[in-house]
């Protein structure tokens, strides 16, 4: 196990030649079709799309190994878009793959809770084995995050999904809630695994590998992190002589960014609400056509056709709203949390700079000449420079993933809407299974002479 | 003003006090209406359970009709209130009676039979307290309208409906039923009722659907603004966001045209909603004609019987006249001869009338049914076309949606 890498300016960590039983050559290549489901699961860094149950004949995986959802034409075209834009791993060879899946419910006398399986595949020397599989619960993730914040205060730690859920309002054990959480936890670990510094953190290593995490946790309580002691969380701002431009700009940016995301969240929620109310009315609308069809002879079939189409629309609409709730909203909220934690790190940085400046002033006042800057001022300066370098690198990296994530998220939203309308059209124009729709299509064809068809 | 059934249905004579000038006449007639004499109100509604005609348990609402004689101001004493309970179906019987008895009068309508026009409830519930309350008011309004009508208010059956628990209405109603209507017309009337009901339901729900859809589209417009604001703080993402926002605006405003087009479809349905009413009118006309015919035939039969009895001196059926003549002495042979002569003339007239009524009736059925067949063809054609154009509208709306979201997606891809 290695200590945290604190090199200023993150370089790309090269995988050390492994002395373990498996070499890099034995690892399935990210671009090769996966041999098994598990391997496919391990290769996906950020699956916002549902994992496919089988890999298609054509290998449509992304360079970073994300498998493809080939269930609809729209999504494979969206995938091709992503192929061109995904430049995350230009030049990097990844050697650490982490996945969160397989949620299970545990019922104990004291409480009921969910655990997730955390699978790791790696060639890094810091790991004794090339593969690990452990079970973790939310508490453990929370612990990990706190530890990372403590031990890597100069870095941006990815957010976790919200901790508290109102027991009466949300069902903590519903499939949807658990799945949403699982995706967020998976993303959390992947972001850390992708981070050139955080991924080498010892707590992270233990989290991924230890059979009994609780024992380690208890151990950790007794020790005090050196870095953590000196840098405390601060709510207020600091008076600085001059805040470096990039951090000032970042702070301002994050303020507006979080605000806009909040607005988008509200809009999306409102849309979902309106859609569900629309659905309620549609559910009454369709059957009335059926009732009418029952009164008629010749008009019976077309009326039933309309009724069936409306029913189809209901199903499609339900799916759209569910998708938006499960896939769209959580990512927005995640980024809002991300922004909040980033602002805290910026404040910490300010604090470190303020300490340094204070010490510098004190020294300047005491001495008339400056033969040599005292060591502790030097240390402070070091700290500031380290912090600035780490944070700047992380900010750049954050901007990149933010751009990727939002591109994917918004394209996904557009896709879902396109699929929705496509489903509606496929009903109106009929298919083999639905005689009523065929009836309607026949009517359109035979009667369309006198009717202006709008394209 | 007793009107004998044997005279056939004809409008009762106007009250003798009516002056020559029409305006003054109407005013005077109003003065003489029932409302001047009594106050009428439907004051309460109560849920009841009972057994219906087929001995099945049913729940219904009964309404309390209260009447009180109008006292002049000077007396200052409240007269006692008379009251009795009636249910909706009894009001219907009364109205049907009035329709048949006064075919030349525009008879006031009853409030709706079913809770059809509720917009905020998913199902029509006749027991719903709001509906019951509105019906109570409607029924009271009906009674007041009839009571203020110069001709209708004088009807004795109406008066007994208000004041006597057993108003002979049920007994009379048996005779109001047409015995041999053309089955096709009965079915058609039933169909037109159902058609009216289903189209009005459809139109109401469609309006709500349109309302909701409007909401969905319009909220997307907010994306336009927030994307624009967000793009201001972004470097590479800015352009993509900005242009996507524009497409969201396009999407949101597209609903206006879509819904306007749909209104045309709604109008096509509405036309047939009103057509259903016209259909029903034709069926009713047949019923009235048939009823008239049956009454005339019945009348003729009874006159023939009377004639026979007078001629032969035997009383086969009980009649008040027969009894009184038995009790208070016979008529003279001359009186009897005169009566027979009158009756024979009436019978001859009646037979002629019956013949022509029969012809009229058959003619009516023939012509009416031919037109109804024509109407059915037209209806099927029109509504098929309307449904198809509706489907085409939906497809067009979907295509527009796909277009806009595809454009937006392209903008997002450039982020």
Overview of the molecule:
The complex is a heterodimer of chains A (455) and B (415). Helices cover 57% and strands 7% of the residues of chain A. Chain A has 455 residues and is mainly alpha-helical. In chain A, strands 1-2-3 form a three-stranded antiparallel sheet. In chain A, strand 2 and strand 3 (131-137) form a beta hairpin. In chain A, 33% of the residues are buried. Mean pLDDT of chain A is 76; it is low at 1-91, 224-235, 430-438 and 448-455. Chain B has 415 residues and is mainly α. Chain B contains nine helices and three strands. Chain B has helices at residues 22-31, 88-101, 129-147, 156-163, 169-176, 183-231, 238-312, 320-328, 333-413; strands spanning 38-51, 57-69, 82-87. Chain B has a three-stranded antiparallel sheet with strand order 1-2-3. The longest helix of chain B is centred in the last third of the chain and has 81 residues, at 333-413. The N and C termini of chain B lie far apart (90 Å). In chain B, 20% of the residues are buried. The chains are: A mainly alpha (455), B mainly alpha (415). Chains A and B meet through helix 2, helix 8, helix 9, helix 10 and helix 11 of A and helix 6 and helix 9 of B.
> On the 0-100 scale, what is the average pLDDT of chain A?
76
Q: What is the strand arrangement across the widest sheet of chain B? A: 1-2-3
Helix content of chain A: 55-70%
Spans of chain A of at least 5 consecutive residues whose pLDDT stays below 50 are 1-91, 224-235, 430-438, 448-455
Which descriptor suits the 3D outline of chain B? elongated
Distance between the termini of chain B: 90 Å
List the helices and strands and how they pair.
The complex is a heterodimer of chains A (455) and B (415).
Chain A lengths: L36 H6 L30 H13 L10 E12 L4 E11 L8 E7 H14 L23 H20 L7 H8 L3 H10 L3 H5 L14 H51 L4 H67 L8 H54 L6 H13 L8
Antiparallel strand pairs in A: 1-2, 2-3
Helix pairs in contact in A: 2-10, 4-9, 8-9, 9-10, 9-11
Chain B lengths: L21 H10 L6 E14 L5 E13 L12 E6 H14 L27 H19 L8 H8 L5 H8 L6 H49 L6 H75 L7 H9 L4 H81 L2
Antiparallel strand pairs in B: 1-2, 2-3
Helix pairs in contact in B: 2-5, 6-7, 7-9
